[in-house]
Design a protein that fits this description.
The longest helix has 37 residues, at 2-38. The protein is of the alpha/beta class. 51% of the residues lie in helices and 18% in strands.
Length: 451
């Protein structure tokens, strides 16, 4: 009896504890689900030039990451540099972000050149993949290659001083190597990934975005709203894509694209002028020229390079009238030279590496292909001009047909050029015999028998 009483007592206690246990399990499940929801990070990519389209895209990334309450925003960087104003816009949004911003320079072979230096310095956590480099943030060099601080213009000195102060302010706010940040601007210092970590320019070495998230887990970062501990290991990565307008503007801000559009536009208009009525070359050339103007407006361009390109196009068109071969070869040469000099790397409004230009590997085959194609179409247009006319009376002379009825000097009918005609002949021609037109008078054809 005593054992049965004790059993009932334990069962009664369990009945009271069971609802509490269920509630505790439900709370744990809800907390785990909430933690899982927070463990998502957004991924954006800063690749190619830093331009207005890229600035708008990354600004949207920061905004969306905050609105959707992502654990962090990861920015993959691989850039030769870009526009000063666009760089400042990106840095301003990163420094004011309510969501931690993690920058990863990768994969291997990537670089954070010039403008990319400021974006990397502004990150809450910065990492580099093996085989990457960062630096060369000098904004302007004189045309002679001399440092502006060593006797250059006052404007160049102001730009360098302002840019150095910009880099210094970012490095101080993020606790990075201030001396190296200034050196990267004033002396175009550039270092590899391992050296950057040793100097305190970046925080981590990471082989991938997942590796970066694993190493960043548990780190404390400073945000405008206070400190925050990162919970990123194993987080779900959600890429954020640019809008069509942002992607299109970024695509246009490419020296190679600007060069191709300019050459295609010029050649298309030249072919249309040389062969009026072709329509397609004129339409394609006009559209390409408009896009080329938009592209050139978004890039640091030298007027001399554009003049050389126009001169080259003019010589190719002149080859159509002269047919000497020399003008065409000279035109292709000027297209190559204009492409080399098209990009102005001395523009103080841009932070770009020396590699920011149209490469030989791209320039030569494209120029030969487009120039050769233009010469071919121009030659074909010349041959078309020399063809016999196919309309009017002149178009009928020499055409062959057959007699639909007996033909003599007074009357007869023939079928020529898909139509039925009145015909006459000095020699009698029987029905069905082949004939050839010798002259036309009004609506009457004078024909001869084909021997």
């Amino acid at each position: 009896m005593g054992e049965m009483a004790n059993t009932r007592k334990h069962l009664r206690r369990l009945s009271f504890l069971l609802p509490s246990l269920v509630a505790l399990l439900l709370f744990e499940a809800g907390a785990g689900a909430q933690e899982g929801a927070l463990r998502s990070v957004a991924l954006c990519e800063l690749t190619g030039t830093v331009d207005s389209g890229m600035a708008a895209y990354l600004s949207d990334c920061v905004r969306i990451a905050a609105e959707r309450d992502y654990e962090a925003l990861v920015v993959r960087v691989d850039t030769p540099g870009g526009a000063l104003e666009a760089t400042r816009d990106i840095v301003r949004h990163i420094l004011g972000s309510r969501v931690p911003v993690l920058v990863w320079v990768g994969p291997s072979g990537a670089r954070a050149g010039s403008a990319g230096v400021f974006v990397t310095l502004a990150a809450n956590v910065a990492a580099m993949a093996p085989g990457t480099n960062i630096g060369a943030a000098h904004p302007v060099m004189g045309p002679s290659g001399q440092d502006p601080e060593a006797g250059g213009t006052h404007m160049a000195q102001k730009v360098v001083n302002d840019t150095a102060a910009f880099a210094e302010a970012i490095a101080k706010q993020r606790g990075r190597n201030v001396e190296w940040a200034i050196e990267a601007v004033r002396e175009s210092a550039s270092v590899a990934d391992d050296r950057a970590i040793a100097l305190g320019v970046v925080d981590l070495a990471a082989t991938s975005v997942e590796d970066l998230l694993a190493q960043a887990d548990g780190l404390t970062v400073h945000l405008p709203g206070g400190e925050r501990v990162l919970v990123t290991e194993g987080a779900r990565i959600e890429p954020l894509e640019p809008t069509f307008r942002q992607a299109f503007v970024h695509w246009l801000a490419n020296p190679a694209i600007a060069y191709i559009l300019l050459v295609i536009g010029g050649l298309g208009l030249a072919i249309e002028l040389a062969n009026p009525g072709a329509i397609v070359p004129g339409v394609v050339g006009g559209v390409a020229m408009i896009l080329a103007m938009l592209s050139l407006s978004a890039l640091p361009i030298q007027a001399g390079g554009i003049l050389l390109l126009l001169a080259g196009l003019g010589m190719i068109v002149a080859e159509f009238f002269v047919a000497s071969g020399l003008l065409g070869a000279a035109g292709v040469g000027l297209l190559v030279l204009g492409g080399i000099l098209l990009v102005d790397r001395f523009d103080p409004e841009w932070f770009v590496e020396p590699s920011f230009a149209i490469s030989w590997e791209f320039l030569l085959p494209i120029t030969l292909l487009l120039g050769g194609g233009a010469v071919y179409f121009l030659v074909r247009a010349a041959q078309t001009r020399n063809l016999q006319h196919r309309v009017g009376e002149l178009g009928l002379v020499g055409q062959k047909g057959r007699a639909l009825s007996p033909i003599d000097a007074q009357s007869g009918t023939v079928f020529v050029f898909g139509e039925r005609w009145n015909a006459r002949s000095e020699q009698p021609i029987d029905e069905g015999e082949p004939v050839v037109v010798r002259r036309v008078e009004g609506l009457t054809l004078f024909v001869e028998k084909v021997s």
